[in-house]
From TrEMBL:
This protein's record includes keyword Membrane: no
EC code(s) of this entry: 1.5.5.2
Swiss-Prot/TrEMBL catalytic activity: L-proline + a quinone = (S)-1-pyrroline-5-carboxylate + a quinol + H(+)
Keyword tRNA processing part of the UniProt annotation: no
Protein name per the record: proline dehydrogenase
Residue ranges occupied by any Proline dehydrogenase domain in the UniProt entry: 45-299
UniProt xrefs under InterPro entries: FAD-linked_oxidoreductase-like, PRODH_bac_arc, Proline_DH_dom, Proline_oxidase
Required cofactor(s): FAD
Keywords: FAD, Flavoprotein, Nucleotide-binding, Oxidoreductase, Proline metabolism
Organism this protein belongs to: Salinithrix halophila
Pathway membership: Amino-acid degradation; L-proline degradation into L-glutamate; L-glutamate from L-proline: step 1/2
Alphabetized Gene3D superfamilies for the sequence: 3.20.20.220
Family annotation (Pfam families): Pro_dh
Length: 306
């Protein structure tokens, strides 16, 4: 039953009609739990509060799969405005971007120029940009574009790698030799068994293997998970290897397992909260429900309270 619900939410995440409807009615039906708001000001307010509690933050102006240059250019402007606002308030943040939001499906060279402009602005402020990884169909283009921008701004850009993909072990090996800052995740997209592990147990096993491999290579590693088993394992691994706090951080999503986030900070671990915001929140929200169908109960309660 859980797998059926997961597949349903992943299918709904790609429904453009539902996305347009969600924009029209705003953050309702439980989405506010996972999305910080629709404006940069909303995100700044939430980030200030999190910074004061000892958390670092990743800001993500939500959006993906735009179909016109105008939409992509506006998305890039939103990213620049986000960086400007964060710098003005001296927030402890970095920025997450999706390449399909910036025109990857329109023209790769056009997308490259957009990303270059964003990373240049971030570098000027001393900030860092993380290129998010999307579905497998965009994987190679994402890595290609990332490598081109990294050649110009090596200290201000990083990448996400999904443990669910067979190819990720090779990718981490290559990036480990080059000292790349990676955020490792299990993966939130439905992929073919031709390219991804179909069984959760295999994904979990590969996730831990990739984390250990990248940390052992001496590279900065963002451990992006809410899984207690993985967190406990990595805490022990970090202690046994004497890995310093400036080489890793635990990363978790806004609105999910906040008590665990707070406990890790109290224990002295570096923790970064991924804070999404913006009007284009629908696809992100659906993937959060797909990852943990138990969240549906919260949504249903919110609907009846509305």
């Amino acid at each position: 039953m859980e797998q059926i619900m997961r597949n349903m939410f992943l299918y709904m995440a790609k429904n453009q009609s539902a996305n347009r409807l969600a924009k029209r009615y705003g953050l309702r039906f439980g989405a506010r739990r996972f999305v910080a708001g629709e404006t940069v000001d909303n995100a700044v307010t939430k980030t200030k509060a999190l910074n004061e509690q000892g958390f670092k933050v990743t800001l993500d102006h939500l959006g993906e799969s735009v179909f016109t240059r105008k939409e992509a250019e506006e998305a890039a402007k939103d990213c620049l405005r986000t960086l400007d606002a964060a710098a003005k308030e001296k927030l402890t943040v970095y920025l997450s971007i999706k390449l399909t939001q910036l025109g990857l499906d329109i023209d790769e060279a056009f997308c490259l120029e957009q990303v270059r402009g964003i990373v240049a602005r971030a570098a000027g402020y001393g900030y860092f940009v993380r290129i998010d990884i999307e579905d497998y169909a965009h994987n190679e283009a994402t890595l290609r574009l990332f490598n081109r921008v990294r050649s110009e701004f090596p200290d201000h850009i990083g990448l996400v790698i999904q443990a669910c993909l067979y190819k990720s072990k090779k990718d981490v090996e290559v990036f480990g030799k080059e000292g790349v800052n990676l955020r490792l995740v299990k993966g939130a997209y439905k992929e073919s068994p031709r390219v991804a592990f179909p069984d959760k147990a295999d994904v979990d096993k590969n996730f831990i293997h990739l984390l250990e491999m990248h940390l052992t290579n001496g590279c900065f590693t963002a451990i992006a998970t809410h899984d207690d088993t993985v967190i406990d394992h990595m805490k022990q691994f970090i202690a046994n290897r004497g890995i310093q706090k400036d080489q890793y951080e635990f990363q978790m999503l806004y609105g999910i397992r906040t008590q665990l986030q707070e406990r890790l900070v109290r224990e002295g671990y570096p923790v970064r909260v991924y804070v999404p915001f913006g009007r284009d929140w629908y696809a992100y929200f659906m993937r959060r429900l797909a990852e943990r169908p138990a969240n549906v109960g919260f949504v249903l309660k919110s609907m009846f309270k509305s």
